[in-house]
Amino acid sequence: MGFLTDHVADVRRRLAQEPLPHAALAEAAASAPPARDVVTPLRAAAAADGIALIAEVKRASPSAGRIAAEADPAAQAIAYDRAGAAAISVLTEPIHFGGTLDDLRSVRRQTERPLLRKDFLVHPDQVLEARGAGADAVLLIAASLGDDELVAMLAQSRILGMEPLVETHSDRDLERVLATDAQIVGVNARDLETLVVDLPAALARLSRIDGDRVAVCESGIRGHEDVRAAATAGASAILVGEALMRAPDPGAMVHELIHGKEPTS
Predict the structure, then answer these.
(1) Among 167, 258, 257, 154, which Cα is nearest to 206's?
(2) Rounded alpha-carbon distances, angstroms, from residue 199 to 36, 80, 196, 229, 243
(3) What is the C-alpha to C-alpha distance for residues 127 and 161, in angstroms, rounded to an integer?
(4) Which of 23, 1, 20, 21 is nearest to 11 (CA)?
(5) What is the spatial distance between Cα 235 and Cα 256, in angstroms, rounded to a whole number?
(6) What does pLDDT average to over the chain?
(7) Which among 61, 118, 236, 256 is annotated as catalytic?
(8) DSSP state for residue 222 in the 8-state scheme
(9) C-alpha atoms less than 13 angstroms from C-alpha of 180 in its C-beta half-sphere
(10) Is 188 noted as a catalytic residue in this protein?
């Protein structure tokens, strides 16, 4: 057993004991404004800057512990938006990442950028929940879903107008995801069972994703050299959280990651 296996088992157990209120969530999702397109902005940013950035709001993580527990998600998102992030990811998982759906709602009120809900989603009602809270996309972790579940979660996302980011952590995960028609494929350099980062292995997997899909490099991105390596390997986008949350000036860090230097005043 590892982190992902244990945590997903807990999520499934909680959902079985306390099912989400399907009718209320369906009504909220139906009443929400239409989901924003996430694929087009990522492609446009990659074409303009060489790579697109999904900037993440993350208070903590199981590998790093507390990162920015007192951070204001809205202020963080405003900085990302003004600096030109193509999309914003918000961690909503409370136990290990210190996030909430209110963080997502707070960010939604401050930006028109596409928003990704990042959490451990294993049930279609969680996708409804994300849409009703303002998400334009959701994270689907391939290793936490069976083949039929993955197809069902893709379908549920698209019914709601969302194209999910489908995340992989292994060669087997990548094979499974490439057998679907997922348009945004993530390669996480962090093994979510052991929490160990192996960026070279992730770069090798990125090279296997064809150009018809948006390939996203996740974890292990600390600076512009890592960004260049990801782009060279075939990434269209990067998802960065910890480095941005620790930065004294997250807007300047956005610019440095993409362009390799701080913006001129």
Answers:
(1) 167
(2) 31, 24, 10, 10, 15
(3) 11
(4) 20
(5) 18
(6) 95
(7) 118
(8) -
(9) 26
(10) yes
